[in-house]
Amino acid sequence: MAIIEIENLKKVYNPYSAYPKVALNNLSLKVDEGDFVCIMGASGSGKTTLISIMSTIDDATNGKIIIGNKNIATMNENEKSKMRKNEIGFIFQNYNLIDSLRIKDNILFSLRLNKINKEEQIEKLNKLSKQLGIEEILDKYPSQCSGGQQQRAAIARALIMEPKIIFADEPTGSLDSINAKELMVLFRKINKMNNTTIVMVTHDSLVASYSSKLYYLEDGKISKCIEKENKKQEEYYKEIINITTKMDLSHV
Ligand SMILES: Nc1ncnc2c1ncn2[C@@H]1O[C@H](COP(=O)(O)OP(=O)(O)OP(=O)(O)O)[C@@H](O)[C@H]1O
Ligand SMILES: [Mg+2]
User: Which residues in the chain show pLDDT less than 50?
Assistant: First the structure.
């Protein structure tokens, strides 16, 4: 069953200026519930624009966007913000941690807002910080942590709410290869065990090979789609490398 449906999506930046920029051009795609979708493409191909619109952070110029049977166009700001708070987890490039709060208070922020009981909060915090290897920074402030640690804290903050859908733009961007791999193992586990839908942007083919479906963007359009199906991860990885290098070379 589709949890996200996008039809003829168009995004034009600065439409009334002398230089309007068409970032997405009549793009259509479907994400099924429980999918682990990866979006790849060259820099400037429209990945961040697409994931921002899919996650209701940005508005489309044109096109239909349906999330969980709800047409975004008919929702008011209040309804959208409620959906963002309760159903969506965001992991974006700028971590948006609150500087005046310790890491653990950043992570627990939404659970406290929702008045989840204390024992459950601590249990979830402990489990996630262990999985993400951030136990030693829980009492620190964001400014006292490295970029990679802040990114993992932001990931913990998104995951602790157990959202239905996770949108992640370059979630491994400031992680080393070991941490990146561990995060993908965690994503896969959440995807399989909780049936959480994941939509992730990455430029890293190895990271992408953890997905179950991959869309490749070129100039604001989907130029290729491949699926993992029953293939071994290694085989899927090779297929990904194959399409990404071909696409890169086509621009030379
Ligand atoms: N706020 C904006 N105003 C005008 N143009 C924009 C804006 N945001 C993005 N663009 C342009 O739209 C196109 C798509 O940008 P987008 O950020 O979606 O690319 P991307 O695929 O995420 O690239 P990267 O891999 O570098 O993050 C680019 O040409 C970019 O310059
Ligand atoms: Mg981007």
Answer: none
